[in-house]
Amino acid sequence: MSAVKKVERLTFPFQTPDPFLFAVYHDDKYPPGDGQMRAPRTGNGADFNPSASYRMYHGERVPGFPQHPHRGFETITATMEGLVDHTDSVGNAGRYGQGDVQWMTAGKGIVHGEMFPLVNDDAPNPLRLFQIWLNLPARSKMVDTAFVMHWAEDVQSVTDANAGYELVVWAGELNGCAGQKPPPASWAADANNDVAVYFITVHPGGTFTLPPSKIGALSNRYAYFFEGDAVAIDAREIPAKSAIEMDASAEAKIAVPASASASASLLVLQGRPIGEPVAQHGPFVMNTREEIMQAFSDYQRTQFGGWPWPEDAVVFPKDKGRFALLNGTETRPPNATAGAKEEL
Asked: Is 58 annotated as a binding residue?
């Protein structure tokens, strides 16, 4: 019996099941920077054209997303290539990428910016990342903001050359790999909620077996075939750029024919649904329309703490390196040089 329940054409952003709200894949082939980490301007200031080689999004010369607010959910930003400069209204900041994962609880309200500095002057600056929104239950909508940085050096993965696959676990557990600890108020912080985020690459001639979830059909599970030209799940051929609703209680065999011209990349999102009403307007996700109106009112009145940075689109010095500034303490990845912790 096949684990595939339904196959749809992949939308932008991806169609997502409860407890997820949103997922988008950014794949930009940015050119060498101009010395100030900038690229030639393209688009109209809101450019998401998938046929363009790269997008500026809402950036002027440095691509990215200048300051904007959120309330009532979490963002998981999982990177493969490129760098992100983060700043927020509670004074936290960071530069991360190249396999790092930032997990942020917006909770009662935060303003943050995410810019993509082009640090290479003499080589291209490719960017590949996912941003995933994970909902919060009503009891946690107004928790304090929080974020954790999962450095690439700590993110667990497995490569099986014989079977022809690579697996990266950004949340949950699979094949002996465990995701790093989420923020404390996250729906994912309770293992009973079975939240999982997997990045799976299967090479031509390779196979990967996705086992049933720990709580079976009580979880929602979707797979997204977002890169590659050929893949089959339980012997059913899946068109390129597809969203696949899965039976989380069933094992699924993912295979790529040896004749395929490229590897197949899939994102898997899984979790026990929250099962509450969702009211969403732009960057705010609550349970009722009245709560959405209150979010707009609160943001207009308080700016969620104000913006402590000198610019709407903050970019750190080119040679800054990867770091996280949290509650006044700067940390760096495990492989950074001595002095990785610095009190500011």
From this structure: no
